Queue: 4 jobs
Job 1
Amino acid sequence: MALQKFEIWRPKGYPLVAPYSGCAPITVKLVDQMFSRDSITVGTWLFDGKNPLVTRSTSKTYTIPGTYKISYSIKHKRLGCLYKYGPFTIEVGKKQKSNFTIDTMKVCLNDTVKFINLSTDTNKIKKYSWNLDWAKRIPFVYDKNPQKHYTDTGYKSVMLIVDNNGCPDTLILDLSLIHI
């Protein structure tokens, strides 16, 4: 009995999609980086499951904030195999203005300070990142309105980053905690 041989094809390389997020308008580069081009019939980019574009490389500009899906497929010339990549998620945001205050201007040592978020369009903000003592590089807090118990005096740089689909805005304010 003779041994039967068969071929299993897997493409070498991958498509490049970059960047994945940013502020509108954002241009996303789509590049076919396949190393086995001689065996590939065609490459097709698909945008949100429709509007196929047959090309190796292109770009797509998004002007409206939202979440989009891009996929890429290639087909082997001889075998007819179809290989799919993605979907890749593209997040397009609109810059929101970060802003905050504290609940009281009279803060004593060992008090808990409450930070009140005053950023614009809070319903559109997907992520809040606070550093409540920037000089010490303490870990970020991801609450909308965090609290911090300060056990020492001095200047405290507080940073708030608000993010809408990869479109950030940053505000850093200095607080002075004094011991009377």
Job 2
Amino acid sequence: MARQQLGIANANEARAGEQWADYQRTYRPNELMTMADAYGQQYLDDAGRAELNDVLTGGGGLTETARLGALQGLSRRAEDAAGAAAAARAGGEVNAAFGQQARTLARRGAGDPTRMAVMAAKLGQQQSLARVGAANTAREAVRGRQLGLRSGVANFGRNMPNTAGQAFGLATQAGSSSVAN
């Protein structure tokens, strides 16, 4: 009986080791890629991506507090980069609309300098509003996406080691049981 329980304990211990190795080989890389996405790697420049990779993989010998600060800073940089890109696109769209209006007026012979000056002033306002609105919308969209991804990764990361831990616990229980018998 004791040998049978010891055999069960050894099998469960081996299974726990296999699950941990599978987690490290298969799921951990996915977890790291999702974490990189969760902190906005696609919006960061090369230096920012390298810094994010270093922080996520534990490089640099940072304390947990410093690591959290670095991740928050990188996340804000990604939000700002997305906002800046959206603002630039919005500004270009307003410029294109203004150019179209100016060409239409010129074709109609309505190229009055005063009217063009008024249009230019309106363009400045419209461009500013479009840029600010686009930047804020992009920042909020990136922040929401990052939070959703972080939540999913945190839950995923907590459950995988628990599965291996449960198998190891069963192995320990079976081993303890065999010693008692």
Job 3
Amino acid sequence: MTIASKPRTTHERHSVDPARDTARRPQRLILRRRLLLWSAPAVALLLLLAVKMASVGILGNALPGQYAAHDADAMDATLRQIDIGSVGSGYRELFAAGDRDVLNGDAVAALANFQAAHNKSPSACPPRANLALTAELLSGRELARGNFFKARTLLETVVTVANEDTACFENSQPADADAKTFV
């Protein structure tokens, strides 16, 4: 014999047993806390990466103005700030370091930075042009000292770099007439 039960109302069908609900609630909170704790380092890392990317863009945009103002100290400070947390230098950072070296009068260091920038991005014209101009400047100095072999070696670098992409040099002439005749 079955006893007829009274039909349940909509409220009764969708309500949860309070004893069962309180047992599930702490488990859900524990799970939420665990997920939050495990995802916090990833979120923090992504935030730091976003800040680093934004700062490189902002600081990098300041470098051309600092070069135009011939402010080598400001360029040095900006490059040090860009280096914070860097995994490696890009060609633009090496290019800016070469420009800073030019402002400081250190053509040898500038040549090394422009060469490194050119090696990082061989298709970019600015490092290629500055590499050629700096090598040409140093070769002119070596010519003046009578070091013809070293001057020729430096000029061979210029010729090689210029021949790799002639479009970068369509409107430029050697600054030193002796260097032009020597090549």
Job 4
Amino acid sequence: MREKGLKVVIGEGNIIDLMAKIPGIKAFAVRSIEKFLNREQKVEVNIGGWQRVERQRQPIPLGVYAAPLKTAFIGEVRGGTQNTVSSSAALHEYGHGLGHLLKLDSSKLLKEAHVRLYPKLAEHLQQGRAGNATGRKELIAESFASYFVLSKEQFLSIYDEQLYLFWEQTIEATIKGHPEE
């Protein structure tokens, strides 16, 4: 992916602080990503048997892929103890870069996979309706990470054989096409 310009930046601290330290990244890019990450979400809370909805600030994630910069930023990578929905934050963000640069984000096969798998997907992969671009991008990133981190049996229990074969063939073709990497 080097020839496509994909970069990965890994460091300590949260990703906003990490990005602010990188020379050449304009402050507005950091501010726009910080604004996105600091949005609030509605959460149902049960207090003493009463249901109510509270607005909570979303936590800063372990990583983010910045498409205009072709860069995946990963901070606070702490192995398996981190409470995250991703199999691997670094692989997940790299998967976003792969999806963007190989144009997998608009792949008919991956749109069909999102529609086919939608009922059994985790909530963060179901963003929007079945086949929706946002959920599809998350499926690409998360299934890419899962392909490397999980056993085949674990992968198949979450996704399906077709998606497993897609990643197997895509990765094999990428390696064969780029033997120096």
